[in-house]
Amino acid sequence: MHLSERDRALLDGAEGEAARQAMAALVQLAEAYDAPDMVDIGYAHVHAGMALYKGDVELIESVAGQGARMAVPVSTNIANADMGDWASTGAPDSLGKLQKRAEAAHRAMGSATSFTCTPYWAGHWPTWNMHIASIESGVTVFANSVLGARSNRDGFFATYAGITGRYPRFGLHLDENRRPTHRVQVTARPRGTADFTALGYAVGRAVTNGVPLIAGLDRRPDLDELDALGVGMATSGGVAMFVIPGVTPPFGPEADGAGLPEAEVDEGALAGIFGEFSTGDETGFDLVHLGCPHASFEEMKHYARLLEGRRVADGVEVWITTNRVVRQMAREAGLLAPMLAAGAKVVSDTCPISCHFACTCSPDPALGVEPPKIRTILVDSAKQAHYVRDMIQCPTLLTTSELAVESACTGRFHPRPRRND
């Protein structure tokens, strides 16, 4: 493969040991995928350093300790504790303090310590044709499909890309891999983010790791619905890009996917996803979680309206998760007051599947983390429902955002009704 003069200088240690190791790792990645060369990236969304995973914070500290500095704007992915108020979620001090060490390491490297799965709502908005790197599958699919940026699903290599400002040219960084591979006809009429996560979940199952062209939507989805659609696909399949004609750059309204393998998602398929993830105790749910992926400012406005003048039922806990920037914006706009008055908790940096609730990550015994016993979690996102079952290993109830709030306030599950086909 071709390496630029700077690439070779990095390999020779011209910018320090951390940059040398980062470039060496990227060269290995490039060789594994037969990449012809490297591209300059404009942004990276990187690994947080997870306090629940033994040695993970120390890994981030060691990279920072070698003198690593980010060469491009960098945001950090979701973490294992709300670093502003972990006690309110029941996390032990040992976990919160260890997670704060990762925050300090990222600040030393020049990362924006956003700790979120939706950095675009915090102002990180890569533009059309910008090459980026991302550890978070939801960020990848949103960047590729809505913003027209170019990203693979990268894992820890996103950190190396952030340090060097370089990434191998393969996968969705190449034009030929950004073309639709399937045509999905949508005859359902999804409304709201919960419906769109379920639609995405059905599409991901149908196309696995392809690039679906979505046809048949009766209106242009809003930004939150597009976000929800992508995370659904990335959860049930390996989808890293979808195409909606007239929405996804540079595909105009005339794109139709003729001749591609076809699939259909009707109302029955949509209702089936809600039914599949609604197997918990309808009067025994412990937690209602809103905001997966982390809520945007518009979603926070919606949740505030739904909770205005209401009160969460006894024995039910409500978490609304968002990023630090949106939480501060919501505070200044007066949106937190009705949520808190209703008894909800507004949490940043983490979420139920990434906090001390998770029982599958085998934390260091010295942390003293004991996952609570949770009977059922009620959610408004197919992504969260999927990972609650994997990470917390408890049943779920899935419904719309509006009905999730109604369930929280009545203490009784209100399922999404099936709509007319």
From TrEMBL:
Keywords: Iron, Lyase
Record keyword Lyase present: yes
Pfam family, one: AcnX
Residues in Phosphomevalonate dehydratase large subunit-like domain copies: 1-399
GO molecular function list: lyase activity
Keyword Iron found: yes
Protein name: Phosphomevalonate dehydratase large subunit-like domain-containing protein
Organism placement in taxonomy: Bacteria, Pseudomonadati, Pseudomonadota, Alphaproteobacteria, Rhodobacterales
